[in-house]
Structures are given as C-alpha cells and as structure tokens.
Amino acid sequence: MTLNDSSTNSSFTCSTDAFKQVIYPIAYLLIFFLGSVGNSLSIYVFLQPSQRKTSVNIYMQNLAVSDLMFVSTLPFRATYYLLGSQWVFGDILCRIMTYTMYVNMYCSIYFLTVLSVVRFMAIVYPFKSWKVSNMKYAKIMCAVIWVFVLAASSPLLSKVIAGYKNPAKCLDLHPSSTHRLLMMNSFVLAVGFILPFCTIIICYIFAIRALLKSKTPQRKKAVCHKKALSTIIITLILFFLCFLPYHVLRTVYLVLGGCSPANLFVHKAQVVSLCLAATNSCLDPVLYYFAAENFKARIRTDVMLLHLYIHLPKASLEAKGIK
Q: Nearest Cα to 1, choosing from 178, 147, 208?
C-alpha cells in the first residue's frame, strides 16, 4: 500500500507511478506463477493419506493455504498497474485485495514464528515439548492465528482507509489517512513483526547453544535436530529478506509522507520492499522441502513415479522390439 502521489508538490513531478507500473506487474506475475505451482503442490503433498500427520505439517499446511490465497489476488494487482493504475474490478474487490495481502503477511509471520518455537522446543526441551507438538494444540493455535489476524486486519476493509471516491483508483492510501495509518503501523510493527522476529532470533540462539553443548546424538535424534535447525535458519532468512526491509521502509515511508525530491528514493525502495514481502509466498515451499516431515521423500517418490509413467510405455515397446 502506498500514499496517493496526487499529494505531491506541484513544482515536482513524482515519478513513482511510472516506476510502480513497471516493477509491480513483472514481480506480481512471476510470484503468482511460482507461488501457485509451489503452494498447490505443497498442499497436495500435505493432504496425501500416506503423509505423516504432525503438528509441524499442520502449521505448514495452513501457511501454504494462506500463501495460495494471497497469490490468487496478484493477477488483479498486476492488471491494475498494467492498465496505468486504473482499477476496473469495483470498490469492494479493491478493499478485499488490500485486506488479503495483510492477512497473508501476518499469518505467514505468525505461522513461521510458531514453527520456529516448536522446532526450538524439540531441541532444547525434548521431554517438555509434547504440548506444543500436540496435534490438537496445533489446530487450536492455527485457528487462533487466523481469527486474530483476520480481526486485526479488518480496518483495511473500511472505505475510509482503503476505499476511493474515484472508482478507478485502488491499492494506494488516502493522504488524509496518514495519521491514522501511523498509529496502526506502530501497533502492527510491534505486535506483528518485532515480537515474532525477536522470538525467532532467541530460538535460533538457544537452539545453537543447545546443539553445541550436546554430545554426538543418535542418528534419529541427529535427523530431528537437522530439521529443527533448518526450520529456524530458513525462517530467519525469510524474515531478513522479505519482512525486515518492508517493515523498516514502510515506517520511514509513512513518517516522510508525500513524494518529494528528497524522499523519492525511499518511495521507490518501498515499492521494491513490497515486492520482496510478496516473494515470501513463493519461497515458503523451500522451507517445506527441507524441514517438513516426509515432504522431501514424498516429492522424490512422486517424481520417480512420474518418470516411470512417462518412460515405462516406451521401454515396454522397445522390449517387444517396437520402435
């Protein structure tokens, strides 16, 4: 979300609109393609009857659903910018676009944080982690996260914040809403980013400390520790790459306000940071591949079966002497 550039100084022509109309369509369509394929495949794997049902996989399945929900909105966003910032889908759908983006972002942050905590407990407190790794507890936690984020993001459905008198405008914020948005940003920054980010860093530090202190573990325990550490490290990378730049630049952007020669760079950087935040939706499947229970094995099995399906008829014909 960006402030409407119509609030700029008349002696300066703000060029962020042209910049957005180039960057956003390319980024959104690429993320849509990669995110749709990656998350659809991930959900397919998680829903397989043979797939092991664990609390970790439940959190990851909910994360994949959230990501798929978000990437499904990206063609609408790309179309808006391809049409020269002209919205043709109506006011209600416009507000839903904004709402869905932030629901996905903060659901992703909380699911990633809970995953890191579960993996941290498995390393540091293996005999006390039964509660956080319990299936029933995982389902309750997922429901709490969904309800909390859906409710906390509901102001973005308001016409005062995300609606427009001009029906052709969308995805930009009213300049008159800046003060209200700064107040909302302070709360969201603390609860939606800083608290989860600090939690993940603490999990990482104590997990590394516990692993350095432990003696050479048994093979099964070593595999568990590897998955746990992979979860925390990949999550930390996702936070540094996708969420940290966006939250820092969004705060600076809202403080600076309208576009001017002095802060034009910040406005353009904020556009790039929003693309990075959206990229999280197509990077999460990397986490599933390396850290989900039996996910890698299931993918390898399906690839092998597909390979046999494609090549076995040909091999059978060749065995019969038919070319």
A: 178
